[in-house]
């Protein structure tokens, strides 16, 4: 993982440096100063760095480590220092270097990132109350930290090592848990109606108001398959029938690039697709995923453009909803980019409100509500400036028509929450809410 970490100023001077593993010398910092800050080639040891103002935050590694993990740590460490000091300058680092060393001891254990939660760390390493903090306060904070380590305080040290994301003693009069599954539908459809690309960016957002130290768990589809970023199936498993499922099998849900909050017990998810965790208090993102197989598109948009003569063209749009009749989409907006030569547009439609925005050079067709299994048609007569070239046969220069919407209780990926359970030693009653929210992301149709 990380062999060393340094903070440099713009001149290449080391303000703070820490070595975490053997086999690397302190003068390794000279290589970064000479070869990176001086814009020379780096041929051996890998330096991963970010810049904040005139400061460099640098991680050094000699192993084949996932760079994304280290960059995530560097940005989290930068944010943590900002939470401690309010700003990040050479003078602040020089004045409070002892606190930064203490923070490094907590957030990196032999070069491996640990908890980065400010609310937990500040209980062990008190932040300076103001920029005039005395050395006595620094020493007091260090003594408190040392004492806690010797005593093995359950309320603080075990909290850091085991459940750093949740404080003990949380109480609510009404215990509630909200689980929202958001999915942004991204699709590009060619002129002939062929799907060029389609995928879903999804995440599960949770908001918990639960007392004590609750254990939450919920299960997803019986047939759920995971794939890695390389596209090959890592594992597909039908939990209900206890057997493997083929890639892209009908009715199965295939998730890619899944990322979980640190509270999730990954072993339990790998074995039976149950997401089990002790949640942080309040709102947080539990899971992020991507799906590109077996996608259910909520709308079908069919455009047809024809030239009618005398500098006019006719655009006919047909918008059909493919979701169940009991559902209703809201804030539906079809946006059709127009050429700079467009002067005016006349409309006839079976529903919604249409207008030509001269400022945006686009036709906007809006529905406050769009019921399921219905369709509407818009006919637009487009008038162009005289002697302007026809836009009909220059498809490569026309941006696609875009569609925005929000649809509740519809999952484009097919993901389903089978159950949601909350257990806590006091055995209180929990009110549970589950929602599915599909939204238009990059939803485009060429014409």
From TrEMBL:
Question: What is the organism of origin for this protein?
Answer: Cyberlindnera fabianii (Yeast)
Which InterPro entries has this protein been placed in? Adaptor_comp_med_subunit, AP2_Mu_C_sf, AP2_Mu_N, Clathrin_mu, Clathrin_mu_CS, Longin-like_dom_sf, MHD, Mu2_C
Instruction: Report the Gene3D superfamilies cross-referenced here.
Output: 3.30.450.60, Mu homology domain, subdomain B (2.60.40.1170)
Q: How does it sit in the membrane?
A: Peripheral membrane protein
Similarity field: Belongs to the adaptor complexes medium subunit family.
Q: CDD domains in the record, alphabetically?
A: AP-2_Mu2_Cterm (cd09251), AP2_Mu_N (cd14836)
Reading the lineage from the top rank, the first entry is Eukaryota
State a GO cellular component annotated for this protein.
Answer: cytoplasmic vesicle membrane
GO BP, one annotated term: endocytosis
Q: Which PROSITE patterns match?
A: CLAT_ADAPTOR_M_2 (PS00991), MHD (PS51072)
Residue ranges of domain MHD in the record: 174-446
One family name in Pfam for this protein: Adap_comp_sub
What keywords would UniProt list here?
Cell membrane, Coated pit, Cytoplasmic vesicle, Endocytosis, Membrane, Protein transport, Transport
Q: What is this protein called?
A: AP-2 complex subunit mu
| Compartmental location | Cell membrane; Cytoplasmic vesicle membrane; Membrane, Coated pit
